Amino acid sequence: MFTRDHVFASPSMAAIAVMGRSANGWLEWKTDQGQTLDGAKRQSVSLAGA
């Protein structure tokens, strides 16, 4: 349990801290709809370029 805010250098470092094991944060973090962080980022970049 975190008792204060923490800033991590990457999504993976945050996932490792929370999960206690090696992790790819771009695949572990998901939206409420189940989309990975990687997928959400790619979608937002795609929409910005449209």
Précis, in short:
The chain has 50 residues and is an all-alpha fold. It has 3 helices and no strands.
Sequence-ordered SSE layout with sheet pairings:
Layout: H1 11-19, H2 25-28, H3 37-49
Describe this structure in words.
The protein has 50 residues and is an all-alpha fold. Helices cover 52% and strands 0% of the residues. The chain contains three helices and no strands. The protein starts with 10 loop residues before the first helix and ends with a helix.
Enumerate the spans where pLDDT stays under 50 for 5 or more consecutive residues: none
Number of strands: 0
Range of strand content: under 5%
Q: Which radius of gyration do the C-alpha atoms yield?
A: 13 Å
Pick out its properties.
50 residues, mainly alpha, 3 helices, 52% helix, elongated
